[in-house]
Design a protein that fits this description.
The structure holds two protein chains of two kinds. By secondary structure, chain A is α/β, with parallel strands linked by helices. Chain A contains nine helices and ten strands. Chain A has a six-stranded mixed sheet with strand order 6-7-8-3-9-10, with helices on both faces. A four-stranded antiparallel sheet of chain A has the order 2-1-4-5, covered by helices on one side. In chain A, 45% of the residues are buried. Chain B has a two-stranded antiparallel ribbon. Chain B has one domain. Classes of the chains: A alpha/beta, B mainly alpha. Chains A and B meet through helix 2 and helix 3 of A and helix 9, helix 10, helix 11 and helix 17 of B.
């Protein structure tokens, strides 16, 4: 059997994707690829089309041109839930958790569905599931809050919970939309450390949108920079940091 | 409420129902109606309260169950078209006790199944819509169903259909009571179990944030369809028995009655939607109020009922159970919530 892992094809491969909203071209002919096991950054000024690209990848809206491949299969036309079950999970910029449920319930809701038949829905959460949920809450530092209503957590804690929920899904790849935005600066280092551990210990590939340059330059092995909906530059952090086009895009000098 | 004590209370409630014919022999029909309404409210809540899809069309399943059962009950013995053409009153259409029992035994489950089938078809068409759009679409469904039934000669069209008349040898009031009670007992136990499974979390996730549920890889469409199909099945069962309780099936006043369609929603909201006990308690309170108003405030009964609803919505927006829950949260725990008061102790510790 020819397995996708055996080939050299990247885990996520975005090929010449274009997305328009009416007359506005939010993404124009964007190509990028993410190798298995890496951490890749996606940067760009506000309105450069980063979140649109994320939405295109996870199937939130249809794309106008191009193809998106994940694990060696084309996913351009799949629905959101189907793509999620393939192991490609995203988090939201505004953070979306189930506010009226406890942290523990949020974790149990995030149990991966892909392996489950309808019949399994009518069981009760197993002990192993509960333990896994508790373990991951411990991992993000929310164990002591596990029976608190998720809506009562601070914004930063909700982000951590959303991250833990994403891990609960047992993803192969995570798309993180500004994981450090709105988080207390003193907590950022801890979060970055956890993202790294998710990558190194759990083997999860990360594609991260980030505005905090210090964070992304430290964390990512490779960075793509968007501006005005187009791919402006791509390369290792040092290269991106010194690229005059990137500096121009951020400082607004044209 | 903790699962075990909740289950004990439920068993007591069901057991109390068994004594009905001896405790209140004169009011058996009203109590039959009470049990059936409880099923309607619980079933509506599975969709409206737990899944967050306000269906104004559940009355359609009630009517479908009612007609489907009546057709089977009659059809087992006589050609349905001739029976309805004779307005069911013809002296030649006599049912023996065996024929009646066989008809009920086959007709009631058939009514539930047909309603379920309808929910799957309607679900495929409507469950792509969200929020108000879904609510409005189901409302259209409810209006259309009554009109369609009123124009269909096979089931008696506008002049309705009569469920088989039981022979004198059968104590039909008691029989219908036990059927109503039985359907309710099955529904109550089933819903109590269903709401303790992971399925509840899956549909609650749809209610609270459907996009997030999808982003987590949930089979949201399948879960919504399943919820509506279950809701329709029990609503259809209740309709099938109700047709035999009221005996006369009018397409617009009974089978697809807008009044009953609204009541099932009100009972759930009154008691507290999105909870198991809410619709149960809501039905009892609503029913008692309704009977009292109809007895003592005749002429003004609907005004009084309307006033009661306004009071509930204004002062107890979360319903009776929701109100109790916010006052005594310790009474309500589940596996995901830990043992009683754990979160509260944490909070107290944090304050100290």
């Amino acid at each position: 059997m020819r397995d996708w892992q055996a080939t050299d094809s990247p885990l996520l491969d975005v090929r010449h994707v274009t997305k328009r909203f009416g007359g506005v071209v939010a993404n124009h002919d964007i190509s990028l690829s993410v190798e298995r096991g890496t951490i890749v950054g996606l940067i760009g000024p506000n309105g450069s089309g980063k979140t649109t690209l994320f939405n295109s990848i996870v199937g939130q809206h249809p794309i106008d041109a191009g193809e998106i491949w994940f694990k060696g299969q084309e996913i351009s036309r799949y629905r959101v839930d189907h793509i999620a079950r393939l192991g490609l999970i995203r988090t939201f910029q505004q953070t979306r958790i189930f506010g009226k449920m406890t942290c523990m319930e949020n974790m149990l809701v995030a149990l991966p569905e892909s392996r489950r038949h309808l019949a399994a829905m009518f069981g009760h959460g197993s002990r192993a599931d509960m333990e896994r949920a508790a373990e991951l809450l411990e991992f993000v530092g929310l164990y002591s809050k596990r029976y608190h209503e998720a809506g009562s957590l601070s914004f930063g804690q909700q982000k951590l919970l959303e991250f833990a929920m994403a891990l609960m899904c047992e993803p192969q790849m995570l798309l993180l939309d500004e994981p450090t935005a709105g988080i207390n600066p003193t907590l950022i280092n801890g979060l970055v450390d956890r993202l790294r551990r998710a990558n190194s210990e759990m083997g999860i590939t990360l594609l991260v949108i980030e505005h905090n340059m210090r964070v992304i330059m430290n964390m990512a092995e490779y960075i793509y920079c968007l501006a005005h909906g187009e791919l402006l530059a791509a390369g290792p952090p040092e290269e991106i940091r010194n690229d005059p086009r990137v500096i121009d895009a951020y400082l607004g000098v044209s | 409420m903790r699962n075990r004590s909740s289950l004990i209370v439920l068993f007591l409630l069901i057991a109390a129902g068994l004594a009905g014919p001896w405790v209140a022999p004169a009011h058996l029909s009203q109590f039959s109606q009470l049990w059936l309404f409880m099923v309607l409210a619980l079933s509506w809540d599975l969709m409206g309260g737990q899944t967050g899809y306000n269906s104004f069309g559940n009355i359609v399943f009630f009517g479908i169950g009612m007609y489907a059962s009546a057709i089977v009950q009659v059809g087992l013995v006589y050609p349905v078209a001739e029976y309805t053409a004779a307005k069911g009153g013809g002296t030649e259409f006599v049912f023996s006790a065996e024929q009646l029992h066989a008809g009920l035994a086959l007709g009631i489950p058939f009514g539930g199944l047909m309603a379920m089938l309808a929910a799957i078809v309607f679900g495929a068409l409507l469950l792509g819509m969200r929020g108000h759009y879904f609510a409005i679409a189901t409302l259209g469904l409810a209006v259309a169903a009554g009109e369609l039934a009123a124009g269909w000669n096979y089931i008696g069209a506008g002049s309705g259909m009569v469920a088989p008349t039981p022979p004198d040898t059968v104590d039909s009031v008691r029989l219908i009571y036990f059927l109503s009670w039985g359907v309710a007992a099955v529904a109550l136990l089933f819903y109590h179990w269903l709401l303790s499974t992971r399925f509840r979390m899956a549909i609650n996730a749809i209610r609270d944030d459907e996009d997030k549920a999808e982003a987590l890889g949930h089979f949201t469409v399948r879960n919504k369809m399943t919820a509506w199909a279950i809701s329709a099945f029990f609503t259809g069962l209740a309709g099938a028995v109700y047709g035999n309780l009221s005996r006369f099936i009018d397409p617009i006043d009974i089978a697809f009655s807008p009044e009953i369609g609204v009541w099932m929603i009100l009972m759930a909201i009154l008691g507290g939607k999105g909870t198991f006990w809410g619709p149960v308690i809501g039905t009892i309170v609503f029913f008692v109020a309704k009977e009292l108003f109809w007895t003592y405030l005749l002429g003004w009964q609907r005004v009084a009922l309307g006033a009661l609803i306004v009071i509930i919505v204004v002062f107890f927006p979360e319903g009776i159970v929701g109100w109790v829950k916010s006052r005594w949260p310790r009474l309500f725990t589940s596996p995901g919530k830990g043992d009683a008061g754990e979160a509260e102790r944490d909070r107290e510790a944090a304050h100290a």
